[in-house]
Amino acid sequence: MISSFMGLETAKRGLSTSQGALYTTGNNVSNANTVGYSRQRVNLQQTSGFPTVGMNSPLVAGQIGTGVEAETVQRIRDSFLDAQYRTQSNKIGYYGAMSESLSKMEGIMNEPTDSGLAATMEKFWNSLQGLTANTENSGAREVVASTGVMVADTLNYYYNSLTSVKTDIGNQINVKANEINTIIDSIDQLNQQISKVEPHGYIPNDLYDKRDVLVDNLSQLVSINVKSVKPSAYGIASDVATGLYNIELMNKDGSSYVPPINLVSVNKTGMLGTAKVEVSYDDTSGAVDGVKFGSKTMTDFNFSGELAGLIESFGYKKSDGTTGGTFPDMLQKLDNMTKAFVNEFNAIHKGGYVLKGNNTTEATGSDFFVLGDGTKNAAQTIKVSNDILADSSKIAAGKKSGASGDNENAKLLADLKKKAFSDYETFKTSTGIDDLKKMKLTGSFDTYYSGIIGNLGVDSQSAQKNLSNSSVLAASVDQNRASVSSVSLDEEMTDMIKFQQAYNASARMVTMVDEMLDKIINGMGTVGR
Known about the structure:
Layout: H1 6-30, E1 40-46, E2 68-75, H2 79-109, H3 117-133, H4 138-195, H5 205-221, E3 224-229, E4 244-250, E5 256-267, E6 270-274, E7 277-281, E8 288-293, E9 296-298, H6 306-314, E10 316-317, E11 323-324, H7 326-350, E12 369-370, H8 378-381, E13 383-384, H9 386-390, H10 408-415, H11 430-439, H12 445-485, H13 489-523
Helix pairs in contact: 1-13, 2-4, 2-5, 2-6, 2-12, 3-4, 3-10, 4-5, 4-6, 4-7, 7-12
């Protein structure tokens, strides 16, 4: 015979389960605007039927249900969408760093504008053309000297500004390395906390959410692959428990390093520790010569993310010993271009004659531009000779003499605008030809500089386009992820009404069973009294 109190127990279970579901719904509503929160769901299951099979089981028509219980409180999350989002987030980090660096470089180069180097050089060439028309005119000579100063100042500004931004990027690299280490430590601590909860059969949803937010942030800084691991000795962990995160550093193409590099190491035996990030720099060039992940030092920089984008912008040491990178490449091009231009211009200038005055003898020209020692960038040190600035008559406009009508050397100086680097007299020796090949100088000064600016524009536009595409894809994936994991207040209100009515029905069941028991206890056996 079935106990009369069985109905109370069944109703009590219904009350308790509906109450727990209402509390979970309330938690979802409370965290509707919490960043990284994943909505939670109570998984309900029937309790075992009565009676069970046995020799002393009561003879009844069949098993009767004994109610409901909450099996687990599970967060709703799609790991596939998480992986897609982190892939796009990594691209956003890389292209974002590259786009920002190139945009700053474009702002410094400031082309095409009246204050850019192209316009300044055009004024300089025009001033030389003006000198050919009137070599004895002091005003024309002063214009040549002053526009020469403008050229030198512009190149100095380019070098100093580019170097300043490059230094800022170097500081950002160290900041990002520290940020990566902080995130890795936090994920490891959350792994430890989760490992103390899951073996007891509980599901630490809040810890999962915190960990996933950190992993999302880490994916923007470096390329990673996340794998959930449940250790072999893991108590009575639930089947829906996520487990511990093993985070592996990946190549740009998504492949693993050999051997694998784990930022957070976990396997079936448990947690094995973390790998800290440390950036090292070359003493001579100042470029990044290695990134150390734990005990593994990488010199190929074949990973992706914001850290890689910053390193590529700042500069890194190549396997052949040379320095690569966006800013070092631009500084090197400016150095090559400036050095070739100054050497050729000075060679032509020294081959001419200064203006012959009433009290002066005929004299050849000296260096028009002056460079610092060879250890410094030519664009950093270029300036007009103090002798020229003090006395513009020392500009060597004549080719045969210092007479006022001789303008042949001024023409040669003006024609340097169209002269190809390969035709420079300073490159005519075998050593000079090797230098020309090494510096990769092609075309004339103007066309070479136009090529530099053109390539800069293309690279910047490409980075911005890739950043935009990655942002659109990431937003799309994040929207899909939000449709699965985020809280819908309309849906929660529907669930609230559903569980409220279930609670009320269970309460009504208690009342009904109470009336039955009251009749049995107080109403039976009173006939005939």
